[in-house]
Design goal:
The complex is a heterotrimer of chains A (367), B (137) and C (374).
Chain A: H1 11-14, E1 18-23, H2 39-47, H3 86-94, E2 99-104, H4 117-136, E3 142-147, H5 153-163, E4 169-174, H6 188-197, E5 201-204, H7 222-242, H8 245-248, E6 254-257, H9 264-278, H10 289-296, E7 297-300, H11 310-320, E8 325-326, H12 349-364
Parallel strand pairs in A: 1-2, 2-3, 3-4, 4-5, 5-6, 6-7, 7-8
Chain B: E1 3-8, E2 17-22, E3 25-32, E4 35-40, E5 54-61, E6 67-77, E7 84-86, E8 103-104, E9 106-110, E10 131-136
Antiparallel strand pairs in B: 1-10, 2-3, 3-4, 4-8, 5-6, 6-7, 9-10
Chain C: E1 16-20, H1 27-30, H2 36-44, H3 81-89, E2 96-99, H4 111-128, E3 136-141, H5 147-157, E4 163-171, H6 182-191, E5 194-201, H7 216-236, H8 239-242, E6 248-251, H9 257-272, H10 283-290, E7 291-294, H11 303-314, E8 320-321, H12 343-357, H13 359-373
Parallel strand pairs in C: 1-2, 2-3, 3-4, 4-5, 5-6, 6-7, 7-8
Helix pairs in contact in C: 4-5, 5-6, 7-9, 12-13
Classes of the chains: A alpha/beta (367), B mainly beta (137), C alpha/beta (374).
C-alpha cells in the first residue's frame, strides 16, 4: 500500500458522529484552580508545590518529542497551553470532527500521585469543580471525570460520594502508576463506591509512583518510556483479574485508556494458559481470567495500532471484541487520532459507528 | 495544467514557509536557502496540516550517542505524530519508499514573464520588478 | 496419550532443544570449584543451608516442574542428567540440548560472591553435565551487575566451545540496552556467543511498573511484559547498531506478545526516531535480523494457530527455536510443539533456526560433518 495523499474530506465523512473518550483540558494559568482551593492549599501550592516520587515535580525525566506532549497546531492564539482554550477546542476538534460528547481527562498536577495525601485530595476536589465550572457549564458536549487521590481510599470515597448522581460526571479517573497494583485491597473501598455510584473507573496513562517503568529498571529514552505504558496497563489488568476484584464487585466496569490494544489478546491468552496450571494459588477466581476481561473491561482506541496489513487490525478488533472499543482522540496531545483516518482498515459503516459512537454511548449512558 | 502565481519570492525568506491555497488544495511553499519547494499541506498519515509542523534538520548517527546533524531546515516534522518529511522530495524519513506527501512543480518567474491570464484570481498586485513563485497544477 | 503420529515424539528427531534447566542440587556440588576464601565463607555464613532457587521459580510451584517429571526422591527437578535424558533428550531424539542454569549467582547482591557462585556453577555444569553427554551445550551464567567480572567470566569459560551463550535474567539491575552492559555484548560478539535472555527476576525492583503484585501467577504473567520492555531497550538504546553481529535469544517469553510489540514499537519509532537516530530501521526489521525466541510456552489457546499467526504478523519463519523448557511444565505428553504445523516450518524451528542463532553450534555441526566426510 502506498499512501501518497489522503482523500479529501468527503461530505459523508462530515456526517460523522463521534464520542471522544479522551480529551485533555488544560489551565491557562495555575491560578485558575485557586477559587476552588482552601487558602491553606493555595499557600501550600505556592510555597511547596507539587511533591512527587520523581526527579522533577514539575517536569518529566523523559521529555516528550513535542512541547507539552501536544500537537504543534493546538496552541491558542491568545496564549496558554494546548487544551486551555475552549474556543480552539471547539473550532479545531469538537465541531469539525463531529464530537457529540467529549470526556474530559485532566492530568495537571497528578493529584493521585501526590505524596501529601491531604493535598492530593484537596486538588482532586478543586479540579473536579473546575472541570464543571470552566468546561462543562460552557460546553454541554463535554463531560467530566471524578479525579480521586487513590492512595487515600477514604478521601477518594468521600469525593466519589460527593459527585455521585451529578450528571456532569460520567466516570472516576485513576492514573495507573499507583503505589500498588490496582487490584490490591487498599483500593477496594474505591471500587465499592464506584459500584454504588454506578460510575465506571477509567484508568488513563499517567501517574508516578517511584517504581521504575519496567521490572528491569529505568529506560534511557522516551521511545522506551512510551512503550512501557502498555506493560503498565497489562499489570493493572492482571492485578484486577487475579485479585478477584470482579468476583467481589460484579457490577464494576473498567475502561483502560491510551494503553494500546495489541497486547490484549496475548495477555488474555497468557493469563488463561498459566492460570490453568496455577489456579490453586487464586481459588477466589471462579472463571477463567479472560472471561473477566471480556465482561468488565473496555478499551479506548488511541493510539490506534497500525499493522502493515489492514486484515491484522480487523483480526485484532475481532479478538478483543468490537463492542469493547471506545473511540478516543487524546486531543490536544501529539499522538492524536483523527476519527476519519485513524483506522487503517476497511471497516463497515456499522463497525465504524459502533466504535466511534455506539459503544461509548452505551457504556456511559449518553444520548 | 494551469500556472498559479502563489507568492512573491521575498515574502518567504530562507528557512521560512508559506501555506497557499490552489484549486482548493493547501500547499506549503518552503525556501531552503534560496531553493523553493512545494508540498501538500496534508500529512499522508492522518491528514494533519503537515506544513504547519516544525522545520528541522536531519539527525543521523553512525553509532549510539554519536549524533550527526545536517541539512538544517530541510525536513518538516508533522505537527501531530512527528513523522519527518523531506521537503525536497516529499518522502517520509522512516518509510521513503511508501509514504510520501505530494510535491508540486514550482518555478520562480519574473513578474515581466507572467502572462495576463496567469495573473487572474491572484489576490496580490503583481509588478514586473518582482519575482514570483508559480505552481503548475 | 494419543497415538496420532502428528503428536508423536519422533517428529522432533534431530531437534535442538534450546531451553533445558539443570538444577544445582546444593552448595556441596559447587564446593570443589570455590577457592579457599569462599569455602570458608560457606562454612562461616552457612551458605550451604541457603536455598538459592529463584523466587521466579518456586521449587514446588506447578509451573516449575511437570508432574510426571518430578523426581521420586527428595531431589530437585532438573538435578538428574539421567532423568533429563529419559524425559526429553532421548525421548525427542534431540541432536543438541542447551542448558540454562538458573541459580543464586545471578541474583546475589555481593558482586564478588555472585561471581564466585557463577564461576563454580559454570565449572560444575561443564564437569557434571557437558562432559557426560556430548549432545549438551550450555549458557555461561554471569554476575551481570558487575560488568568487569561478567566479562572476565565469559572470557574464562569461552575457550570451551560447548559454552555457546551468555545468560541474563530478563529483569536484573539495568534495562538491557544500557551502555554499562555493553562490554558483555562486545565480548559475546567477539567470541561468537549468543546472548540468552531468560524469564526471571533478580527482584531489584517490583516486577511491574505499578508495584508488587500479590500472587506468583501475576509475577509470571508479568514476565512477558518484561521481555517486551527489554526488547524495546535493546533496540532503542542501539545495542544492535553497536554490535551488528550480536544475536539475542529470548527464552520462555510466551511469544504471542510479539504482535502487539511490533505494531507499537514500529509506530512509536516513526514519531520519535530523532531521539534515537541510530535506530535506522523499524524495530520489527531489527528484531528479524537479531532476535530469536524459544517456543515454550506459546501463549495462545490454540498453539498452532498462535504460532502461525505470529509467522504471518512477523513475516518470518526464522524467529522461533525449539525448546521444551524442561523440567518446567509447559506442555503434556509429547506435545512439545502443537500438531498441525507445516513440515517446513517444523524443521526450521527444530533445527535450522537454532543452528542459525548459535554460531558455535553451527560450527560444531560443520566440524562433525567434516569428520564424517573425511
Amino acid at each position: 500500500m502506498s499512501i501518497v495523499e489522503l482523500d479529501r474530506v468527503s461530505p459523508a465523512a462530515n456526517r460523522l458522529r463521534v464520542i471522544d473518550c479522551d480529551i485533555h483540558p488544560a489551565m491557562t494559568a495555575w491560578t485558575e484552580v485557586h477559587p476552588f482551593l482552601a487558602r491553606r492549599w493555595i499557600d501550600h501550592l505556592t510555597i511547596y508545590g507539587s511533591h512527587l516520587r520523581h526527579a522533577f515535580s514539575e517536569a518529566l525525566t523523559h521529555p516528550r518529542m513535542s512541547p507539552d506532549a501536544a500537537r504543534v497546531d493546538a496552541y491558542p492564539d491568545e496564549g496558554g497551553p494546548p487544551g486551555s482554550s475552549l474556543a480552539l477546542m471547539q473550532q479545531q476538534h469538537l465541531d469539525p470532527n463531529g464530537v457529540d460528547h467529549g470526556i474530559l481527562i485532566p492530568l495537571r498536577w497528578n493529584p493521585g500521585s501526590q505524596r501529601n495525601l491531604d493535598f492530593g485530595v484537596a486538588l482532586t476536589k478543586a479540579m473536579n469543580t473546575w472541570q464543571v465550572e470552566r468546561w462543562v457549564r460552557n460546553e454541554p458536549r463535554l463531560k467530566a471525570s471524578v479525579l480521586i487521590a487513590q492512595e487515600d481510599a477514604a478521601g477518594s470515597v468521600a469525593e466519589i460520594e460527593a459527585r455521585a448522581g451529578d450528571p456532569n460526571f460520567v466516570q472516576i479517573l485513576v492514573l495507573p502508576r499507583t503505589d500498588e497494583p490496582l487490584g490490591r485491597r487498599r483500593y477496594w473501598p474505591i471500587f465499592a463506591a464506584a459500584e454504588q455510584a454506578g460510575l465506571p473507573i477509567a484508568v488513563h496513562v499517567g501517574g508516578t509512583n517511584g517504581h521504575p517503568s519496567t521490572g528491569g529498571g529505568w529506560p534511557s529514552y522516551y521511545m522506551e518510556e512510551h512503550h512501557a505504558v502498555a506493560e503498565s496497563m497489562q499489570a493493572i489488568v492482571s492485578s484486577l483479574v487475579f485479585e478477584g476484584v470482579f468476583e467481589r464487585f460484579p457490577k464494576l466496569r473498567i475502561v483502560i485508556m491510551e494503553g494500546g490494544l495489541g497486547w490484549i489478546p496475548s495477555l488474555c491468552a497468557r493469563m488463561d494458559k498459566h492460570w490453568a496450571k496455577l489456579r490453586s494459588e487464586v481459588p477466589h477466581l471462579k472463571r477463567c481470567p479472560s472471561d473477566y476481561v471480556r465482561e468488565h473491561i473496555w478499551f479506548t482506541t488511541q493510539p490506534m495500532e497500525e499493522p502493515e496489513r489492514a486484515s491484522h487490525l480487523t483480526e485484532l478488533f475481532e479478538r478483543i471484541g468490537w463492542d469493547r472499543l471506545l473511540f478516543s482522540t487524546d486531543y490536544p496531545h501529539w499522538d492524536f487520532d483523527d476519527p476519519r483516518y485513524a483506522f487503517k482498515a476497511p471497516l463497515s459503516e456499522a463497525q465504524r459507528h459502533q466504535i466511534l459512537f455506539g459503544n461509548a454511548q452505551q457504556f456511559y449512558g449518553l444520548a | 495544467m494551469t500556472r498559479h502565481v502563489v507568492a512573491t519570492v521575498d515574502e518567504i525568506p530562507s528557512g521560512a514557509r508559506k501555506i497557499v491555497e490552489v484549486q482548493g488544495r493547501e500547499i506549503g511553499i518552503f525556501n531552503l536557502e534560496g531553493e523553493f519547494f512545494a508540498i501538500a499541506n496534508r500529512c499522508p498519515h492522518e491528514g494533519a496540516s503537515l506544513c504547519k509542523g516544525r522545520i528541522v534538520g536531519l539527525v543521523e548517527a553512525d553509532e549510539p550517542g554519536a549524533y550527526r546533524y545536517s541539512r538544517r531546515n530541510e525536513l518538516v516534522r508533522c505537527p501531530w505524530h512527528g513523522w519527518e518529511f523531506d521537503i525536497r522530495t516529499g518522502k517520509s524519513w522512516c518509510d521513503p519508499r511508501r509514504t510520501k506527501v505530494r510535491s508540486y512543480d514550482l518555478k520562480l518567474e519574473q513578474g515581466s514573464a507572467l502572462g495576463e491570464e496567469e495573473l487572474r484570481a491572484e489576490t496580490f498586485p503583481v509588478s514586473v520588478e518582482k519575482q514570483y513563485v508559480v505552481i503548475e497544477l | 496419550m494419543t497415538t496420532d503420529p502428528s503428536c508423536s515424539a519422533q517428529r522432533f528427531a534431530g531437534a535442538v532443544d534450546c531451553d533445558l534447566h539443570p538444577a544445582v542440587p546444593g552448595m556441596d556440588v559447587l564446593m570443589p570449584y570455590l577457592d579457599d576464601y569462599w569455602r570458608e565463607m560457606v562454612a562461616v555464613r552457612a551458605l550451604d543451608r541457603l536455598n538459592l532457587s529463584l523466587t521466579s521459580y518456586p521449587q514446588n510451584a506447578p509451573l516449575s516442574c511437570r508432574p510426571d517429571w518430578k523426581p521420586a526422591g527428595a531431589g530437585k527437578p532438573g538435578s538428574s542428567l539421567a532423568a533429563m535424558q529419559q524425559h526429553v533428550l532421548d525421548r525427542f531424539q534431540a541432536s543438541f540440548g542447551i542448558l540454562n542454569c538458573l541459580y543464586g549467582g545471578q541474583a546475589m547482591h555481593s558482586e564478588d560472591m555472585a561471581a564466585a557462585l557463577c564461576r563454580a556453577t559454570n565449572d560444575w555444569i561443564r564437569d557434571a553435565w557437558l562432559d557426560r553427554d556430548p549432545r549438551l551445550r550450555a549458557s555461561i551464567i554471569v554476575p551481570a551487575h558487575n560488568t568487569e567480572l561478567a566479562v572476565a567470566e565469559i572470557e574464562r569459560v569461552a575457550g570451551d566451545g560447548r559454552f555457546i551463550q551468555v545468560l541474563l535474567l530478563v529483569s536484573g539491575e539495568l534495562t538491557l540496552g544500557r551502555r554499562q552492559l555493553w562490554p558483555i555484548y562486545a565480548a559475546a560478539e567477539r567470541l561468537g556467543l549468543a546472548i540468552g535472555v531468560h524469564a526471571g527476576s533478580a527482584y531489584r525492583y517490583a516486577p511491574t511498573s505499578v508495584g508488587w503484585p500479590s500472587y506468583f501467577i501475576e509475577d509470571y504473567i508479568a514476565q512477558s511484559g518484561a521481555f517486551e520492555n527489554q526488547l524495546q531497550s535493546l533496540i532503542s538504546e542501539g545495542v544492535f547498531a553497536k554490535f551488528p553481529r550480536l544475536r539475542v535469544v529470548m527464552i520462555e517469553s510466551g511469544l504471542t506478545w510479539l504482535s502487539g510489540f511490533i505494531w507499537r514499537a514500529d509506530k512509536t519509532w516513526k514519531g520519535v526516531r530523532a531521539e534515537v537516530p541510530w535506530v535506522t530501521r523499524a524495530p520489527s526489521d531489527i528484531l528479524r535480523d537479531h532476535v530469536r525466541f524459544t517456543v515454550q510456552p506459546i501463549d495462545d489457546p490454540d498453539e498452532a494457530e498462535g504460532l502461525l499467526r505470529l509467522v504471518d504478523h512477523l513475516k518470518s519463519d526464522e524467529l522461533f527455536l525449539f525448546s521444551t523448557d524442561y523440567p518446567h511444565w509447559q506442555f503434556d505428553g509429547d506435545a512439545a510443539l502443537p500438531p498441525g504445523l507445516p513440515e517446513p516450518l517444523l524443521q526450521k524451528i527444530l533445527r535450522d533456526n537454532p543452528l542459525a542463532a548459535y554460531p558455535r553450534l553451527a560450527a560444531s555441526v560443520r566440524s562433525t560433518e567434516a569428520e564424517v566426510s573425511a
